[in-house]
Amino acid sequence: MAKGFLSALKGVDAFVLSLDVMDISGETQSDITHNILKTRLDERGVPVPTTVITELQNDLDKINSQREGGYCGSCYGGVEPEGGCCNTCEDVRQAYVNRGWSFNRPDSIEQCVQEGWSEKLKEQATEGCNIAGRVRVNKVVGNIHLSPGRSFRTSSHSLYELVPYLRTDGNRHDFTHTIHHLAFEGDDEWDLAKAKLGKELKQRLGIAANPLDGTTGRTIKQQYMFQYFLKVVATQFRTLNGKTINTHQYSATHFERDLDKGSQENTPTGVHVAHGNGGIPGAFFNYEISPLRIVHAETRQSFAHFLTSTCAIVGGVLTVASLIDSALFATRKALKKTGHSSPVNGGYTNGKLM
Predict the structure, then answer these.
(1) Which residues cross the membrane (predicted)?
(2) Do 248 and 152 lie in a common domain?
(3) N or C: which end of the chain has fewer CB within 10 A?
């Protein structure tokens, strides 16, 4: 099953944003980049010009060209790549992730200092990110989440390198966001023709809109978690010309939590509430796919059914007309008996002289 979405995060820059998927079967997709497009946004929500992005890449190329030939950077204890060298800050960061370590001291790493990693992070601290794309998920309970920093696994647990991004040194990141489009799609909808037909059929039935489209979550806190709970139901359309389109519908609720308040707190009404220990700042989309399926089928009645319906309508009209005629006749007869009928036959009523 494929899932398409488009979401703009105003408080997290594209450099630190990570997209991960995990489900109840134990499958984990960490820091997904395939079929995903991240666009940097300035403070006004306008995409950052590509010339600025190119200049940043050129700076990295200049640093590499200035290094002596045969340069081999240290991986600082991380898992070394195939070449055995970590020549960029990103290489060291990846080596740390592969080792299961948090990348929390970039200023003590030579490559990061040369590239101005911390300075670039500060420069982008006021930027946002627009993320768009598709990811494939299994038809089981799972979640898709956006968080600052990359995730890594150690001892069968998923951990996140949040320290460089959430420390209080001016690099403020929050998860204020707007969901422009969030939909669950079937494999059929990878076919553009079927996707268009499926959209038209949904519009006819009035189910084209997705519940979370246009939803906005706001916060000014760094340690804040948004959770969306989605109930997904498979939907199939069967047309008269024999085409079958598989898609999905979903319903949604949401919940927000300030992680700074800890695992226990009192509600405004004084009720004591305990939360699960810990929590990760970000936006979590927890989905549950139902084993049921809704089928919308177009059907055409036979000519015999048309004739039967026509005869039934004609018979109904005649029956109603007969009832009206009987009612009018009975009313006229009753009026005659009470002597209130109008004069007829030259002033005679009922054949008698007045």
Answers:
(1) 303-330
(2) yes
(3) C
